[in-house]
Amino acid sequence: MRSPRHWKVWKQVADFIALWGLLLGGVFLLAGAEAVVIWSSGFRYEPDTQTRSVWFEDLSFQRSKRMAAAVVCLRQNALAEGVKSDVVLMDFVTRRTISLDASHLNPIAVALSPDASTVAVVGADATVRLITDVTPMSTARLMAEIETIDGAHVHHPIRLRFSPDGEKLAAISEHSVWVWSLSENRLLHEHRRRGNAKRSVQKVLAFTRDSQCIIAADSDGGISIRDLHSGKVLKRDLTDHHSLFDADLFQEDRLLAVASNGTPHEVSVYTFPVDQGKRAADESGGEARLWTQRVSDPVVALGGQGSWVATSVYRNDGHQILIRDIRTGRERCMFAGHESPIVGFASSGQTLYSWDSCGSICEWDIATKQRTYSFSMLQWVLDSLDPDRIRD
């Protein structure tokens, strides 16, 4: 026979369970009543679609036109599936930005032609395509057409480049470099990069001014000039860095700036005579280095007709742009305006353009040391999603 003390304990347990049962029952009752009201008025599920982040997967800048084509990636909240990408065309003269509605191509890399009329795109399927008649921007969506180059496929593209005459297109990946003739619609040149692909130089790709030679980096830190007709190496310089990321070339003064992605990040400036005869393919150009400085982000640009170089530094708890004299490396001025790491530079005369990992672009006047324009790709995307706004 149970003692009164045991009965008292069991009664307390039963009261506790009954209390929680009443509370849960009330919650379910209220939820059911609300569901009936919502259902009777037309049930509609509206998930949170707030945009979380926008960034530039790739950006190609055309100096003479002051225009850029970019692969813009958009990630929404956790309910969104994957990352969406599109090709966006930006005019920094008129301050206009439009989408080329190329999200169906799943773009990865882009290049803008010298006359800014054609955008080359490599999509997730590795096919190289040309979006033509993209300017004037007011009629781009109506007139643009997509063409392909016979047999042109690039897996894991790093950078695309048009030749100065607009007749050729080059691409670089971890292992190879390709050049296609656009007028003949065929592959003109292909070579494998020297060195270990794990130390891959990522963005060093350019043409000589006459469009007859390709300047590309090897995976061992070397930079080669090859004749596109014979395929022979005309010149090869080996820099002091084995983990290059970015580079810019000023051919008039034969200057080359390279940014290293090693530890620590560094920017070095070399003399690089691209038109100096045929030299031994294994000749090193390390002795022609002018200076080296540490930087916070491995990006670089030459500007001012070869008078200054733009680099990045992290100072005063912020991401800064540091302008240095190209010959001596001395600091000339510094700009603050980015809240996230800087991922790219481009120049046009005395104007510098910089973009960061959060999709913001700034325009700087080096002569007056002022920021003249800023653009938020995130805000533009949000405005584009608003049906009450016009998307341009």
Automatic annotation (TrEMBL):
Keywords linked to the UniProt accession: Repeat, WD repeat
InterPro entries hit by this protein: Quino_amine_DH_bsu, WD40/YVTN_repeat-like_dom_sf, WD40_rpt, WDR55/POC1
SMART domains membership: WD40
Protein known as: WD domain, G-beta repeat
Taxonomic source organism: Stieleria maiorica
